[in-house]
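Notebook, p. 212. Picked up where the previous page left off. The plan for this session was modest: take the two constructs that came back from the sequencing core last week, fold each one, and keep the raw output in the notebook itself so nobody has to go hunting through shared drives later. Recording the first one now, exactly as returned: residue sequence, then the structure token string.
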Amino acid sequence: MGADLGNYRKSYEKQALLEANISDNPMEVFQKWFHEVDSNFDEPETNAMTISTIGLDGFPKSRVVLLKKYTHEGFIFFTNYKSEKGKAIMANPKVCLSFFWPKAERQVIIKGTAEKIPPNISDGYFESRPRGSQLGALVSHQSEVVKNREELEKELHQLELKFEGKEIPRPEHWGGFMVKPISIEFWQGRPNRLHDRIRFTLNEEFDWVMERLSP
């Protein structure tokens, strides 16, 4: 079994990324890009991002999660702290985030350190979730082996009965991480594979240094 994908090619020609036209603060650049993509391009989930961690087995692993908030400090997502992902982050908080918006021909790659957000902020977000999502967080022992789907649905039904008409508490093992960036790279596709790559790196004085990278 095999496939030759050598002829899969696309020419990127929509936009350019020039130093003279962007802020010297990468969080402002990210905010501008996110807004442009979300407003002008038919991306199904603009906030979908890939997070890469180093697992307890020493191997890197990537998976898609949803960005739920970003501030001048960093990028926030929520997960099960006891999941494979959560355990990996607690053991080694150095992670990488990446956004790929193909219709805008843009990519953002973020290196940084993840840390738990305060419990009250996790509480606030959990309370804003639909009840089904709240119950799902209680049911799922994320990343653990399960016998079959029926077992999950049975437990969900039991919790629906238990909390009928009641407030659903946030599990202590579920909450948010903030990734505080040390490097943010913006990639804009260009013709002939001469893509624009602008990287911001945080220096020892906590100032952002902008550099253009060869494609």
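Okay, moving on. Second construct, recorded in the same format:
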Amino acid sequence: MSRAELDKQPSDVQRMFDGVAKRYDLTNSVLTGGIDAMWRRESLAAVDPRPGDRILDLAAGTGVSSVAFAKAGAEVVPCDFSLGMLQAGKKARPELPFVAGDGTKLPFADDTFDAVLVSFGIRNFVDPVAGLAEMRRVTRPGGKVVVCEFSTPTWSPFRVAYMEYLMKALPAIARAVSSNPEAYVYLAESIRAWPDQRGFGAMMEEAGLTRPQYRNLTGGIVALHRATA
């Protein structure tokens, strides 16, 4: 099965996610011990959708996060560039209006959405700053851009243990449950190479977003970033 490298060529990333789509949600729950559900709830709260809001769920995968936005009364559009993910999502959640799209070249007009959320997806963009700029473009002035992404644990001993888990235990667990275990070697490498909380905040500013702020979740394993378009 295929995996991407850290240069994140879009065709490689796309094939990789096509290969994990079938068991993607199950694998994520197993690898995180179910904590991913809490991270999704915190992301929902950061967006704070209201009935009638237009929300873009970018790099939405199979649409797991989109369901909560729809239940809140928002008009949510799950968008991903992996056709395998979109097919799996449409099969599981046929009521959602899935859209195929590249995060660095979004197929939406300016100022279309009240908020954009990307959960654990921007790390896989070939150009994250371009992706953030696209999120700003399609969000109305004053709207929210929310990014939930793996980050750097704040406590040094925990950080060391976490990195050991990423590089050793995570791929081993993935071999037992994933349809493409090699993809999770890339996952571990990409998390280790990703900027820390402040570094990603600087990327948001570079993309033209204003007032970036973040909140650590689970000791900094994940950071919930928010900025204004």
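Notes on construct two before I forget. DSSP finds nine helices and seven strands in the chain.
Flagging for discussion at group meeting.
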